[in-house]
Every structure is written in structure tokens, then in C-alpha cells.
Amino acid sequence: MLGPVQLAPLDLGPGVGAVFSTRYGGVSAPPYDQLNLGYHVGDDWDRAFANRHLLATAIGSPPERCCYAHQVHGDRVLTVEAHHVGTVKTRGGRRDADAMVTRVVGAPLVIMVADCVPVLLADPDARVVAAVHAGRKGLVAGIVGKAVATMRAAGAAEIRAVIGPSVCASCYELPADMAAAVDAVVPGTASSTRDGAPAVDLAVGVASQLAALGVTASRDQRCTVESPELFSHRRDGVTGRFAGVVWLEP
Fold it and tell me: Is the separation of the CB atoms in 93 and 217 below 8 Å?
């Protein structure tokens, strides 16, 4: 039986809505059960489409207002204007980007993850919000800083952020040379797993980049690998995607 969509509401200030979804409350079958939002992971397209509608309904938005990008582990930031809303969402209208920024009211920005770091940002006074997908490649490419710069170009001054659930360092083993390469660009990210293998702490890297930019951030400490209510590619291989969503309320 279909249960209710389970969301974790966030506080990014007055006039800003923000949530992280979970895997619960959707219609997808295993291994994508239940609320998979990704079209690109092998799930039945119609079920993923239905899940996107369920998510939109749960946050009180018309489904066609929700904005999804085609995430490519790059550094492109898409500024979502009013004429984009309703097109940045489907196979035919998707745009390559790993961050979205908007001043448009009632246009939820949806970033999908399954171990990478979802980052939601807002300046409630300037009425600017952003959603960022920060994996290893995006972290090194500076996607977080580019999103913040785009927000400031749009008028943001006092930005606050929430760093979402992601794979923790204890579960994110990497080859030693790869971990060292990340740490060379984002110092302090090199770590080790609970077994002593080389690792990278993506969330620490995001937090340090935000702090250097003067952005106040809180963090959801859940590890995707260790949290059964969240999708994790590293844990399960074939799996779905959950989301971080942020929007400006009327």
C-alpha cells in the first residue's frame, strides 16, 4: 500500500520552503523502492514521473512548476527565469547543470542525489534560493562557490545553507591518489574509512568552502550508506535518487 511521502522540513528563513525527501511514499518497485525521482537510473519512467508528482503534491506545488536539471558532475549553474519554469523538468526539456539559482516565486528547485552532497541555500531578505549537487568532481570544480557567486550576482548578501545527507568519510573509500588529489584542491577533505583505507569527506569539503565564502551552514549528519531511509549508490549499486528541494513562497 502506498504510504505518505516522507519529508524532512528545513528552516532556511521566512518565505523559504526547503525539504529533503526520503525513499518512502512512492510507487517504484525494488530496487528503486519507493520514491525514486530519477529518470536515468533504470526505473520505469512512468513510475518515476508519478513519484515526481507525489513529491510536488507533498510540498504543495503544481508538478509542472518543479525544476529539475540534467546533473552531469560538472560546474554549470543554471539561473532559472520565469520562462524556464515548466521546461526544466522532463527528458525533452532538461538542461545540463549541477546547480540552480532562482528569484522566481513558487518554482521549486530539485537536486537529486544518492551519496553526493545536496546543498540548499537561501537569502530570505533578497529572495534568492539555490540548490546544488556536489559530488567529488563538482566539489573539486568549485560548483558550490559558483552557485554562491551566482546568488550574489542576483542580489543575495546574507546567505544561509543546509548541507544534506551524503556518504560519510567512513564509508567513502577512494584510491589514495584520488583522495590526495581532492585534498590538494579542497584542503581538509582527506580522511580514512573505519578500516583505515584512504577516503574523502565530501560534506566537510562543502562546509569548508561555504565557510570561506562567508555562508552560514547547518548540516544533516546522516550518512546515506548507513541510513536505510535514503538511497545510496555506494551501498546498493542499482538504486533510486532522493532530493533536496528549495523554493520561494509567495
Answer: no
Task: Tell me the whole-structure pTM to 2 decimals.
Answer: 0.94
Single-letter residue type at 14: P
The DSSP annotation for 49-70 comes to HHHHHHHHHHTT--GGG-EE-B
Q: Which parts of the chain are beta strand (E)?
A: 7-9, 16-21, 67-68, 77-80, 99-102, 109-113, 117-123, 128-134, 160-163, 190-192, 198-200, 216-219, 242-248
Measured CA distances, 64 to 17, 54, 86, 103, 150 (Å)? 17, 12, 5, 17, 24
Using one digit for the tens of pLDDT, what is the confidence trace for 107-139? 999 999 999 999 999 999 999 999 999 999 999
CA distance 14 to 33: 33
106, HSE (Cβ side, Cα atoms, 13 Å) = 10
> Taking CA 89 as the corner, what is the angle to CA 86 and CA 90, rounded to the nearest 5 degrees?
115
181 by DSSP, 3-state: which?
A: helix
Contact yes or no for 167/220 (Cβ under 8 A): no
Encode pLDDT of 20-45 as tens digits: 999 999 999 999 999 999 999 999 99
Query: What DSSP state is assigned to residue 249?
Result: -
State the Cα–Cα distance between residues 70 and 115, nearest whole angstrom: 17
Cis peptide, bond prior to residue 221, ω within 30 of zero: no
Task: Give yes or no for a contact between 218 and 210, defined as CB atoms under 8 angstroms apart.
Answer: no
